[in-house]
Amino acid sequence: MNLVIVESPAKAKTIEKYLGKDYKVLASFGHVRDLPSKNGSVDPENDFAMSWSVDTQSKKRIKDIEVALGNADKLILATDPDREGEAISWHLLEVLSKKKAFKGKPVERVVFNAITKTSVTNAIANPRQLDQELVDAYLARRALDYLVGFTLSPVLWRKLPGARSAGRVQSVALKLITERETEIERFDPREYWTVQGLMTAKGGNFPARLVTLNGDKLDKFSLNNEDLAMKAKAAVDTASLSITNVEARPLTRNPSAPFMTSTLQQEASRKLGFSATQTMRTAQKLYEGVDIGGETTGLITYMRTDGISMIGEAISDCRATIKNEYGEPYLPGQHRVYKTKAKNAQEAHEAIRPTSFARTPDSLKLSGDMAKLYDLIWKRAMSSQMSSAKLERTTVTIEDSAKTVGLRATGQVVRFDGFLKVYEETQAKKDDGDETDNDLPAVEAGQSVKQSDVAANQHFTQPPPRYSEASLVKRMEELGIGRPSTYASILKVLQDRGYVTLDKRRFTPVDKGRLLTAFLEEFFNKYVQYNYTADLEEQLDKVSAGDLDWLTLLNNFWTEFSATVDGTKELRVTHVLDALNDSLKDIVFPEKEDGTPARKCPKCETGELSLKLGKFGAFVGCSNYPECKMTRPFGGEEQETIEDIVLGQHPETEKDIVLKSGRFGPYVEMETEKKPKRTSLPKTWPPDAMDLEKGIMLINLPRKIGQHPEDGNQIITALGRFGPYIKHNTTYVSLKEPDEMFTVGMNDAVSRIADKIANPGRGRSAAKVLKDLGKHPSTEKPVQIMEGRYGPYVKYEKINATIPKGQDPQDVNIDMALEYIAEKEAKSPKKKPARKKAAAKKKPAAKKKAPAKKKSPAKKPAVKK
Length: 865
Description:
Layout: E1 2-6, H1 9-19, E2 23-27, E3 42-43, E4 49-50, H2 56-70, E5 74-77, H3 83-98, E6 107-109, H4 117-125, H5 132-159, H6 170-186, E7 191-201, E8 204-213, E9 216-217, H7 226-238, E10 241-253, H8 261-272, H9 276-288, E11 290-292, E12 295-297, H10 312-326, H11 368-383, E13 389-400, E14 405-416, E15 448-460, H12 469-479, H13 487-496, E16 500-503, E17 506-509, H14 511-523, H15 530-545, H16 550-566, H17 573-583, H18 585-588, E18 609-614, E19 617-622, E20 631-633, E21 645-649, E22 656-662, E23 665-670, E24 677-680, H19 692-699, E25 703-707, E26 714-720, E27 723-728, E28 731-734, H20 740-743, H21 746-758, E29 769-775, E30 782-786, E31 793-796, E32 799-802, H22 814-827
Parallel strand pairs: 1-2, 1-5, 5-6
Antiparallel strand pairs: 3-4, 7-8, 7-15, 8-9, 8-14, 10-13, 10-15, 11-12, 13-14, 16-17, 18-19, 19-20, 21-22, 22-23, 23-24, 25-26, 26-27, 27-28, 29-30, 30-31, 31-32
């Protein structure tokens, strides 16, 4: 018997069917070891020795593999065909070697680019040894990321409160986003006008645009105000026009190459609205396959690749399908060859393509995201081997006899659609003022035309758009930052750490993201430079190719980086703020129209505004604090601050109730013996409508309604972070209007509380089963999809695994659920084993009616402080 190790349980079942009874296939569930999240996991003083740890779940899987290996003749490592897959195999070899589990048994490494019977059996027949150079590249990358994260993050915690951590590549991606935001903020729009009219000729009507005036060619900003535009419009209105030239120029458009990882992410974002994570997750399912005729078959080749070529068999399959589906005209005489730009051939695999072009999207019973993505991959790969499209671009020139006024109309006609019959890549949108192609009638030079509906249109130049996931991945790829397998995780980390938000599919940096970028540019400038990061990626590629020793790379990096970190030890927070005030002055302290100093405090007029750091992040405050309590949000515009207004005195305490303005909005305050009592104003209560009565009502919160008739515990109303509510014990009932806090009575409150208990909505106690998936293969415990407050999730024992966004819960099967559960287990913090109590001696069986002997209580072990 031969033991085969793959990464996922879904693949394990499929591959075991392909290989037959002489093979046993087990899953490693990804990496079996990882670097612990603590200092010292990488030791630069000891040749960058790494201390790997194995979590509880991985220990069970390693034990299963060890037991199976004891009964096997040979171990075959069949993890994914990339650097991470090579590393997983290396980790397994290391662990099993330490356990002395091999006992002279041979070990082979096989890779396959698709989960089909042919690919798998061919791989098994052509084994190789572990690629140590790929493993070295993996070790170097892991060490670099660890050293940057665990060395730089503590500096951030001490010098820049509110920053969570910094990553080697993530910080550079964040810099791209923040630089684009600054570019947008500094953008100064320019006005320009265009003049366009409808031309009527013998053959029909068509629009044309003014391109020359008084014999001069117009550029974009020639007509930069209304006066010039109206004069130009009048010139067109009064001109006697005729067609002076008709030029038809043939054009050829060639198809794009098949997808690699980055282009798939970009196009799936543009055409389907998928996030990078959603794209890769769906591609993983297509790679692992679906049931076809009772056998699970992979539908696409491996989806983490920077290659754009297809093997000869796939090209032949593709060309045969083109001929059958679309006919001879759509099949070029020679197959097309695409060359990858990847610098490292060892990591450049085949393009992402269907495993069989005969499996058309319509022939497969796919649904949801899988159907959409497979359709995209199939069409792109199919079109890559189809004939070029033949087009004709026609330009019509219209002028007056003196050639003082000239207009132009353009049109494009598709003479042969070629690959466009199947697929057209998404093109960038044109600006408002750009010329567009229109359907043109049959016209000839010399024909007179009559103009009508001549209009002068105002335009303004637009700032560059914020990055989408697609455009950010494209830009990172252009700069050589990151690699195909890392893009999705980089974008996810930036969002998870709260450095950026994704709104309307565009990235916007939040305050702490901009602060982090400014800090790194000031004190770690070299390490966020695009060319430096790209150069480091090239060095990692050299390690993969065997042209550079990985320890040499790490030594060179660490010598400079550690010295830079040491240089910040004496840095004080005040120095950091001074540097940030200077680097962010255009954002935080924009120039004022009245010419007064940008940093002059608008409240006390003697203090100077500066960035401040608090536990809730950065804000702008006055240097005269605490005498002047002027504050405003970081990056916010100058806001009118509410002067402290005394609303009156509380009738019971005779203390002043004061309306104030704070960082988080207006609030009322009253001095007490211990500390001031404060209550924020409800969002629907404007500050200028506040009076003493409302101030007293807010200061008196929480309001006691009375004792609940059943248990005698108090029922109250109060104002919380998410608005007004009723509370009884642990039951909270939201109130729609703030006024209800002061008007709701006992009967109404009791009724609402009873309704909430009976119908808790989407609370934890109300979670219902959406789908039973069956039993876990290891424990026979049920695995279910539950309805949750934040969306559906997979439940197994005490593990609640989130179902990825965009995934239809009804499409989730047991194999997918097992992967979600494994991911959740891997991310969960490891609990320390509970301290075992001294085992009590087993009591002898008591005789009938004999009194049981009392057992003295066991002494608890002393707990050290």
